[in-house]
Write a structure and sequence with these properties.
Elements lengths: L1 E2 H11 L20 H8 L4 E2 L2 E3 L1 E4 L1 E2 L10 H9 L3 E4 L4 E5 L4 E10 L3 E9 L2 E10 L4 E10 L3 E9 L4 E10 L2 E9 L5 E9 L3 E9 L5 E10 L4 E10 L6 E11 L3 E10 L4 E10 L4 H8 L5 H17 L6 H13 L3
Parallel strand pairs: 2-8, 6-8, 7-9, 8-10, 9-11, 10-12, 11-13, 12-14, 13-15, 14-16, 15-17, 16-18, 17-19, 18-20, 19-21
Antiparallel strand pairs: 1-5, 3-7, 4-6
């Protein structure tokens, strides 16, 4: 077991020397997150637990590796974290900020097949770290809605055992939202299917997948919708370690923009010669003039067509999360900003 006091002490020790952006400032891999806004929020004297439903507070969790020095937001998170939370088996888990800045950490130990809806709602600034441990032979499904009305930092880590599978849908709506999504395929035959979308505000999404054993499968796809004044960035890396054999990996980033900043950087790091399939791509999903003309000849106005078009793309990525009120509102707002 790992105790919160130990993690908190380590985070406080490394915080003064830890940067928000430790990687290179290359235009292709840099973060466009407004870290000054994060620093203002994270440096606040008063932090709260907020409300966590579907999980129980605890001061110790199963042994996991944490490196607070990897990112200043993570160091701030652990330095001020009031409590760990353990998932209680509920189908729906909600994290809510209660004022000023909220720090939360939830651990999901999944021992049998499960489907979970996780709503991360932040009317105030917050940081959240989520650890998902999927036991060997277990299938887990997670729908994650990240809504940040203020600065928001979310770090989701998924650890897979042998012959286990994990599928997820990630919908990001908000301003100054930074999401780091990591998946570790540690056992033979483990597989993951990650699908997500960012719309209606500013968000920087990192998706990292590490395949470490034989016959691992990883499929990642993310779509970004960028309106004027927004930044939407997706950086995705699939890394096939030397010990991985016959890995099947795929990365797909897509975007549709109306003048905002949209950056898509899919990457592969293949460290073994024994890979059955490896691919990455980045695509522009803007509708063609022929598609718009076809709709208009059937009495569909351009505004209606664009809203249906955007909804269909996002729904293909995030499923039923597209029915959430905040997502519907974001789709409508984005569609209205598109040129006619």
């Amino acid at each position: 077991m790992i105790r919160l006091d130990d993690v908190r002490e380590r985070a406080r020790a490394v915080l003064p020397s830890t940067a928000y952006q430790p990687y290179s400032d290359s235009p292709t891999i840099r973060s466009y997150t407004n870290w000054d806004a994060f620093e203002d929020a994270f440096s606040a004297d008063h932090w709260t637990v907020g409300r966590v439903s579907g999980a129980t507070p605890t001061d110790a969790i199963p042994s996991l590796s944490f490196d607070p020095s990897s990112n200043r937001a993570l160091a701030h998170h652990f330095a001020r974290l009031p409590s760990f939370h353990l998932w209680d088996g509920s189908d729906t888990v909600a994290l809510e900020a209660s004022g000023n800045h909220t720090a939360q950490h939830v651990v999901f130990c999944i021992r049998e097949d499960a489907s979970i809806l996780l709503k991360d709602i932040a009317p105030y600034s917050k940081s959240a770290t989520l650890d998902v441990l999927v036991r060997p032979g277990v299938s887990a499904d997670l729908s994650l809605l990240v809504q940040g009305a203020a600065v928001q930092y979310v770090h989701l880590r998924v650890h897979l055992g042998a012959s286990s599978s994990f599928s997820s849908r990630l919908a990001v709506v908000g301003k100054n939202t930074h999401v780091h999504y990591e998946v570790f395929l540690n056992g033979e035959g483990a597989s993951v299917d990650v699908s997500g979308g960012s719309v209606g505000g500013r968000s920087d999404v990192i998706t990292d997948v590490f395949t470490r054993s034989s016959n691992n499968r990883a499929y990642v796809r993310h779509v970004l919708f960028s309106a004027p004044g927004d930044f939407l960035v997706h950086r995705g890396v699939i890394r096939v370690e030397r010990g991985a054999v016959a890995a099947d990996v795929d990365m797909d980033s897509a975007f549709l923009t109306t003048g905002g900043l949209a950056v898509s950087v899919p990457q592969l790091e293949i460290l073994t010669d024994d890979v059955s399939h490896a691919a990455h791509r980045s695509r522009d999903l803007s509708p063609s003039s022929e598609q718009l003309f076809y709709a208009q000849t059937r009495g569909v106005r351009s505004a209606e067509f664009m809203q249906m078009y955007v909804d269909s793309i996002l729904r293909s990525r995030v499923g039923s999360l597209a029915d959430e009120d905040i997502v519907i509102s974001a789709i409508k707002s984005f569609s209205e900003s598109l040129p006619r």
